[in-house]
Design a protein that fits this description.
The chain is mainly beta and 354 residues long. It has helices spanning 5-21, 125-133, and strands spanning 27-31, 36-45, 48-53, 60-63, 67-71, 76-80, 85-92, 97-102, 105-110, 114-118, 136-149, 154-166, 170-183, 186-200, 206-217, 222-238, 242-257, 266-281, 284-294, 303-313, 320-331, 341-353.
């Protein structure tokens, strides 16, 4: 609220600052413990202030509850919890107050009343909310080398592409992954996966999903395979940087083998049980996924379990990353001479287009 004694002192401090008694050459954030951080304030949103400090390469994210006051050395846009919007230079007030100086005069507010701050040329909160609702595409391209132990031991090269179409409540993931290698002149890996995964969270935390994985694996002597599933999911955790959900559904699996594989083709209805976990931070993200697909005709003798975990760094505003991970696939039915479990360890260079 305006008009309190602290606000009056805030006006006085602001006037002295504008008169040249306290001219700042950079933005400043003063914490409750007396610490002072100088740099460039990028934004305030959701109770968090983001500043690029002079002494570090990475941005700092600070809880607004830990901030006494702050200042900027140029005009910014700012809104308060009451919905008031200002455009001007922010100067520190007395105690937990700030003042904003504009062509229309000087206004003061408590630091805890600041809801949003953004720079000239950046999106406003309303524009960001609208953009979040708009459907948009994101693409990633992957290349790297892997080492595998299991049916065969070898080094390999790999290529991959992912496309994500994200709406306000749903997401479509399309992927193409190709792996090929030779060991001592012999082909040791040759497989292709074409993947589509769709989920709709309109009734969150409840969701429904559909997915399919198609391709071939010459080393497993599969001329063609396809796995599809449809079911329901539940979002246990659904935050912007942390998600955990479970899926449960039913589907169909078909595997066509070469004549010398020693086994018949597989064609069976299946169950589909999956756990997905994702955690993102400034340094990158951690992803874990495990899926269990038993045959409904013979659940104890015909099933596939797949798992993947990886850590991915974030560089250049999350446009380039290094992905380090491993995947495991256990198939209870395999061609003669092959092992049931294949484990793959990999390092990928990932490029992102947003």
């Amino acid at each position: 609220m305006f008009g309190s004694f602290s606000r009056v002192l805030g006006f006085a401090v602001a006037l002295m600052s504008c008169a040249g008694m306290n001219v700042a050459s950079a933005d400043e954030v003063r914490l409750e413990d007396g610490s002072l951080i100088r740099g460039k304030i990028k934004s305030i949103s959701g109770g968090t202030l983001v500043i690029a400090p002079d002494f570090a390469k990475s941005d700092f994210k600070i809880d607004m509850a830990k901030i006494e006051n702050f200042s900027t050395d140029e005009a910014v846009f700012m809104t308060t919890n009451s919905g008031a919007t200002f455009n001007g230079t922010v100067v520190p007030g007395f105690g937990n107050t700030i003042s904003i100086s504009s062509l229309h005069g000087i206004a003061a507010a408590g630091t805890d009343e600041v809801a949003d701050l953004w720079r000239v040329g950046d999106l406003s909160p309303a524009e960001r909310a609208l953009q979040k609702k708009d459907r948009h595409w994101t693409f990633t391209f992957e290349a790297g080398f892997t080492g595998t132990s299991g049916t065969t031991d070898f080094a390999q090269g790999l290529l991959g592409m992912n496309a994500y179409n994200v709406g306000e409540f749903d997401k479509l993931h399309l992927a193409a992954n190709f792996n090929y290698s030779e060991t001592n002149g012999d082909r040791s890996q040759d497989n292709l996966h074409l993947i589509a995964d769709y989920e709709d969270k309109f009734y969150a935390p409840l969701q429904w999903y559909g997915r399919t994985d198609n391709g071939y694996d010459k080393i497993a002597k599969q001329n063609f395979f396809t796995t599809s599933a449809l079911g329901l999911g539940y979002g246990i955790i659904d935050q912007s940087n942390w998600t955990l959900n479970i899926r449960c559904g039913a589907g169909f699996r078909y595997e066509s083998y070469e004549e010398d594989a020693g086994i018949e083709d597989v064609s069976t209805p299946t169950g589909d049980f999956e756990v997905n976990h994702r955690y993102s931070a400034d340094f990158g993200k951690i992803v874990n996924k495990i899926n269990y697909g038993p045959s409904l005709d013979n659940p104890s003798g015909d099933y596939v379990i797949s798992h993947e975990s990886y850590f991915e760094t974030a560089y250049y505003e999350d446009k380039v990353g290094i992905r380090i991970g491993m995947s495991n696939v256990y198939n209870s039915i395999v061609a003669v001479g092959n092992r049931h479990l294949d484990s793959t360890f990999y390092v990928k260079l990932v490029f992102k287009i947003k």
